[in-house]
Amino acid sequence: MATAASASASPAAAFGAKTPRPGPSPSPSPASAFARPSPRASAAGRLHASLHLGGASASASATGSSIVSNASGIHLAAPVLAPLAVPKMTGAVGAHKNVLLFHCEEMRELAEQVVARNDDIELRSISWRTFADGFPNLFISNAHTIRGRHVAFLASFSSPSVIFEQLSIIYALPKLFISSFTLILPFFPTGTSERMEDEGDVATAFTLARILSNIPISRGGPSSLVIFDIHALQERFYFGDSVLPCFESGIPLLKSRLQELPDSDNVVCNKVREGEQRIVRIKEGDPRGRHVVIVDDLVQSGGTLIECQKVLAEHGAAKVSAYVTHGIFPNKSWEKFQPDNGEGPGHGLSHFWITDSCPLTVNAVKDRQPFEILSLAGPIASALQI
Question: Can you tell me which family this protein belongs to (predicted)?
Answer without folding.
Answer: Belongs to the ribose-phosphate pyrophosphokinase family.
